[in-house]
């Protein structure tokens, strides 16, 4: 029973972060900026619609929409992508399109579009969701702020391995051979990194 408590705590924390992210990525009116959160649940990017006339229909959908995306975080992004989703007056999703930018500095805005969009209504609300927020090695922060923690912690590759042969385990290290007796012959096994 005690082993399950940490698992339950992890599940509860995951759903709490998910709920926070959903709250920051709520639907807004077409004339309002939509905000997408990063993995920590804090606002990362904000988008405004440049295209004002959005009158799609099943027989003549709107195929592209222009957006102005702004970096509202304290981090320089090398690559940003996400979805712009549109909803009709009943709250039914009637179109979504993928947007992307190659680089977005802190407090910088950039124009982009949503190729592949098929907007089949006259939407009343919209939202954006960030799918990729790739940072560069040296994070840039706003004046007076401290640098945010690194998004990805890099671990050293393992140097000790175990080979299991028919349930019998044998420790092995990189570039350090192990000699095993297999039948009536000795076999030399060497583990090395690929070129």
Please provide a written account of the structure:
The protein is mainly β and 195 residues long. The chain folds into 2 domains: 4-135, Immunoglobulin-like; 160-189, no CATH class. Helix content is 11%, strand content 39%. It is built from 1 helix and 12 strands. The protein has one helix spanning 4-24, and strands spanning 28-29, 34-37, 43-49, 66-71, 77-87, 93-101, 109-113, 125-135, 160-165, 168-173, 178-182, 185-189. The strands form 4 sheets. Strands 1-8-5-6 form a 4-stranded antiparallel sheet, with no helix packed on it. It has a 4-stranded antiparallel sheet with strand order 2-3-4-7, with no helix packed on it. It is elongated.
Give the spatial strand order of the biggest sheet.
1-8-5-6
Tell me the structural class: mainly beta
How big a fraction of the residues is strand? 35-45%
CATH class of the largest domain: Mainly Beta
Question: What's the overall geometry?
Answer: elongated
Count of extended strands = 12
Provide mean pLDDT, rounded: 79
How many strands, what sense, and barrel or not for the largest sheet? Answer: 4 strands, antiparallel
Proportion in helices? 10-25%
What is the total domain count? 2
The arrangement of helices and strands along the chain is HEEEEEEEEEEEE
Short recap of the structure:
With 195 residues, the protein is mainly β. The protein has 2 domains: 4-135, Immunoglobulin-like (Sandwich), CATH 2.60.40; 160-189, no CATH class. It has 1 helix and 12 strands, in the order H-E-E-E-E-E-E-E-E-E-E-E-E.
Defining traits:
4-stranded antiparallel sheet; Immunoglobulin-like; elongated; mainly beta; 195 residues; 1 helix; single chain
């Amino acid at each position: 029973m005690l082993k399950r408590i940490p698992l339950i705590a992890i599940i509860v924390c995951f759903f709490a972060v998910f709920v926070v992210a959903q709250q920051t990525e709520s639907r807004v009116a077409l004339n309002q900026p939509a905000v997408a959160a990063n993995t920590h649940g804090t606002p990362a990017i904000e988008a405004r619609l440049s295209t004002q006339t959005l009158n799609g229909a099943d027989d003549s959908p709107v195929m592209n929409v222009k957006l102005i995306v702004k970096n509202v975080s304290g981090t320089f992004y090398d690559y940003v992508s996400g979805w712009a989703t549109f909803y009709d007056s009943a709250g039914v999703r009637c179109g979504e399109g993928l947007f992307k930018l190659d680089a977005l500095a802190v407090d910088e805005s950039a124009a982009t579009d949503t190729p592949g969009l098929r907007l089949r209504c006259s939407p009343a609300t919209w939202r954006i969701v960030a799918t990729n927020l790739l940072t560069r090695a040296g994070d840039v922060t706003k004046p007076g702020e401290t640098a945010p923690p690194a998004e990805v912690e890099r671990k050293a590759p393992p140097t000790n391995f175990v080979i299991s042969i028919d349930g019998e385990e044998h420790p092995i290290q990189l570039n350090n051979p192990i000699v095993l007796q297999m039948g009536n012959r000795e076999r030399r096994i060497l583990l090395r990194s690929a070129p």
